[in-house]
Structures are given as C-alpha cells and as structure tokens.
Amino acid sequence: MITDLSKIGSLKVISRTSVMRYKDARKPLREIGRELGVQGVIEGSVRRVGDRVRITAQLIYAPSDTHLWAESYDRDLHDVLKLQGEVAQVIANEINAKVTPQEQARLSGKRPIDPAAYQAYLQGRYYWNKRTEEDIQKAIGYFQQAINKDPNYALAYAGLADSYLVLSLYSSAPWQDTYRQAKAAAVKALEIDDNLAEAHATLASTRAGEQWDLAGALTELARAIQLNPNYATGHQWYAEYLICSGDAEKAITQIRRAQELDPLSLVINSTYGYILLQARRYDEALAQARKTLGMDANFYLGHQLLAEAYEQRGMFEEAITERQTAATLAGESAEQAGRRALLLRNAYAKKNAKAYWQERLQLAMKDAKQSRDLPYELTDSSPYRLAVLNARAGRNEAAIGLLQKAFNERDYGLYYLKTAPALDGLHSDPRVASLMLRIGVAQNR
Residue 443 has what pLDDT? Predict the structure, then answer.
C-alpha cells in the first residue's frame, strides 16, 4: 500500500522503514502523526484464507483521531498487488488528492503476482533496510527467491540491484563486482517495467561508479524522483551526487526531503550529516550526528560521522573515541581498535594535530598492505582516502599521485574531490583541475 500511494505525487507518503517502527506501538495516533509529520494515517489488516485474501483499511485524521473512511476487500491472493493499487486510488479520491493520468495508469496496470514471490520481496526489503553485511546478504537471498518464483517480477530485480549496489559500502566486497551485478539486475528490472523508480535510481549510481558519468547519474535520479516523488532513497542518492557537483543548497533540499519521507531512517539521517560536512556546516553536522545516534547508539556510521565532525572542529580526543567505537561496532576486535586509538592519542598528545594526521596515515598505509576487514566507509586504505590523509599530513605530491590512482581504479570516493575540505589546497594544481573536469565536477565554488 505504501509503495502504491507513494507513486501519487500530490501526496506526502512516509517510507515503510519509518512506519514499521510503530507496528506494535501503543502510542495515540495523533502522537504518531505528529512524529511522522503527517495528518492522515492508514490502518489496515490482511487476512489470508486459502487462496483468498481480505484487506481491511481505514483512513484516520490523526490530529483528532477521526475516522474518515473504511472498507474491506476480498480477492484472489494472486491479485493482491492489483487490489493495493485500487485501494490507493480510492484513498486518493477520499482526500481529493490529484492523481495524474500517468499515475492512474501505473496504479491500475498491476499484473497477478505469485504470493510467495511477493512475500519474499517484502522480506528482502526488510533486511535491505537494516544495512549490515549480514542483512544485505539475506536480502539478496530473498530477492533471488522472489525472482525464482516469478522471473518477471520487476520489483524483485530492483531490490536485488539495490542490494548489490550497497553491499560494497557495508562489507569488504570489491565494488567493481557488486556494481556489475547491480547494473545487470537494474537493467533487467527496467526491461520488464521502465517506470520503476527504484531501478532508475540504482542505474544512476552504477553510471556514476563505472563510467564517471555524474551528469548521467543526476539525470537518471531526476527521472526516478519524477516517477516516484515519495521515494526517500531516491532523494537521498540525488542529494549525495548533488553535493559532489558542488550544489550544496540543492543537495540539502533533497536530503531534507528524504528525511521528511523517512524520518527514522538511520542511513538517511547519517547521510544528512555527511552532506552538512561537505557543505562546511560543521556545527549542524555535529548536531545531526548526535541526533542519529540518539535513534540508535549502536549505528557505527553515526559514530564515524561524529568522528569526522569532531576532526573538522579540531576535537581530536573526541574523534579518536568515536572512531574506536565505530570500528568495534563494525566488527573489529576491541583489542585492535583500542591499540589504534592509543597510538593516535599518544601522537596527538606528544605533538599536535599534524602528528595526529601523520599517525592516521601510517596506520592506513599498514592497512593497505595487510587488508583491514572493515566496510569501505571505515577504512582509510583506498587511494582516495589515502590521498586525503596525505594532504592532511602536508604531503601534497603524494596526495595528487593517489588522486590520479583513484581515478584509474574508479574509486568513487574521488567524487568528493571538489568538496572535501582537506583537498582545497590542491585545486589550483593543473593535474587536479584536470581530474575534476574528467569526473564531471565543476571547478568554481
């Protein structure tokens, strides 16, 4: 139901990720509506009897807890997706929402679906939203199950594409392999249904990663949002590429929209913080990092974000603590994470901030030789991240050489070449200016 309603551009529909946090909550509806920033709440139930399904739905005006509409529907189980589209249209009519002819066609054009395939798809999305390596692998398994049950299930291919796309961010899997698999699944999804926003958004990231095609990625993401204005992840990814291009204001507008649509998403909230960092709004980034950790203190990317914000504020002791916590939560042994933290504390205490960055660089160079098994976001051993550390340590020539290596190896961190504060001093070098042109980011600030 959420998926269908989200395709109606005149409605603001909260993502399933945030909504499901209230599944077993006993809060009053007016409080839930206030927390999610909505006036209308749909309650419903699904009951299966043999090959039949009954969907009961009711629309409630949350501020006054007033029932506006209620109905029950009985259908063959294979027609559950078509039924959801019908109910979405009825709800839109009840609240006088504008539904374009294109949106109406997409809602009414549902084909029968194997119930087992649909259930596997829902389970896949559940695990995909959890964003750990183990859960993403589970998601891949469920999406593949859905495809095996129904080889023409476009959404299942889109889910598979999304899973492979983010796998390299949350594991040590080579991104070249996972992006290739993501692209193949996204292309297959679009062959079946060219109006699938999720697949267009995933294809955008593969274009950016494999081809240095930032302009093409932005176009593809704009198309995804046009198809589904309530697709929170689409707005999030659009914001990430906009900040790389140097358009901070548009990026912040997009990530705020993503947050409105999925206010309890840890990934979107942490991404908001990273975009604020790139926009040089450090105090806001600190506040956003703390807000994210207030939702879940065990979210390692929240601690990593807080560490980077502390570093920009010169608060290195605090940054060391947060990096240690992030590494431990991501799976590194407490002993190893503690040893690294001690080395950094000693370097900073004995000398200064530059010594801190030099020690970070030394540790990263060791990691590059012996492979530290952590997600990409927590390692410093990629060419781009090594370039940043070299620049921080005052080794500009080494930094430029590593930036060129990052380009040759398609290290997608290079997209932050224009906005990373540590690299500002390199922009005037002709070699760096050439790289900025080749990856499609503007030179002017």
Answer: 55
